[in-house]
Amino acid sequence: MSMDSMRGKSAIVGMATAGVGEAPGFSAMELLGQAAVKAVNEAGLKMQDIDGVFAATSSHAFPTMSVVEYLGLKPRFFDGTNVGGSSFEMHLLQATLALEAGLCDAALICYGSNQRTAGGRLVSMSEPQWHETPYKPRHPITAYGLATSRHMAEFGTTREDLADVALAARGWANLNPEAFARGPLSKDEVLSARMISDPLTKSDCCLVTDGAAACVLVRADRAKDLPGKPVYFMGAGGANYHRSIVAMPDLTTTAAAESGPRAMEMAGVSQKDIDVVMLYDAFTINTILFLEDLGFCPKGEGGRFVRDGRIAPGGELAVNTNGGGLSCVHPGMYGLFLIAEAVAQIRGEAGERQQDNCNIALCHGNGGTLSSQCTAILGSEAAL
């Protein structure tokens, strides 16, 4: 099976979210179930039609088994690959491979978390603790602060540049009624916000919310017979260099520099073809790093690239049009919400934030501490 043979072979025919922001009284699995039921219904299918399950969660050691039990499924194929927040971009590729191989006919990708109302804090075990424990870090923030400091030292990136990322995210969130953090936000407010891990302030850090998302994929030939407007899988790629931040080869270059080109080659597109860019913005530095590593600007130019509203509403490049993890939703793992917004944009269902003639969207997921990088490209029928 060649790389380009996967282009356009599957399509998302159902997409849904649930409990975005705060959902008191619901468990993570209950929220996941709500999103899954909505996605399957939108696809015009029944739950018993689902014979492929792909899941990763931060609250279940055996996610696919838990999902299968809760939803009453009997899948022929399942995969619980967990590489952090980028898992779901990789699941798109895995589901497409399984569908194309005839291992399943309808694949469900799902995630749910009640991190906010369950009292969770933004703390991760994504680092092998024996490396850093003597220094008492607060991961993942300490790790991202380290990468930010290095980018500043090497390329002259400023806290004002980081603030421009946060302001752009809030600008998009203010156009999204589902976004958790809405309202005015000034650059002075971002810069004067409480310092969490120098040089990152509270405003440089993602939200801690509840939320669930799910999508249903089928083979492309079947998608045209279902009620939902199909959004086609065009390409995906993954790369991973490390787990612990202390093992990252270069703090200013992520494995997105490999996952992005792989996805674009499979999809047969380049940066100029992308209409919407959805980046996993757990911290403001992420957006800058991924814009560089995915080739939207040269290495070291990310800070200058985001200045003056370039990625904000009305700017040159539509980035994180839902408000991102910084202002829309971030329930522990954010990667499936990137896909949800890409689907909304390609279907023309994004309301005030809708981009004109949106046919191709890039979703880039990040897992761990700049560790696992997975890029996926989705398109409309016109893009095939």
TrEMBL record:
Molecular functions per Gene Ontology: acetyl-CoA C-acyltransferase activity
Cross-referenced InterPro entries: Thiolase (IPR002155), Thiolase-like (IPR016039), Thiolase_C_2 (IPR055140)
Residues in Thiolase C-terminal domain copies: 237-379
PANTHER family: ACETYL-COA C-ACETYLTRANSFERASE (PTHR42870), NON-SPECIFIC LIPID-TRANSFER PROTEIN-LIKE 2 (PTHR42870:SF1)
Name of protein: Thiolase
Organism of provenance: Salipiger bermudensis (strain DSM 26914 / JCM 13377 / KCTC 12554 / HTCC2601)
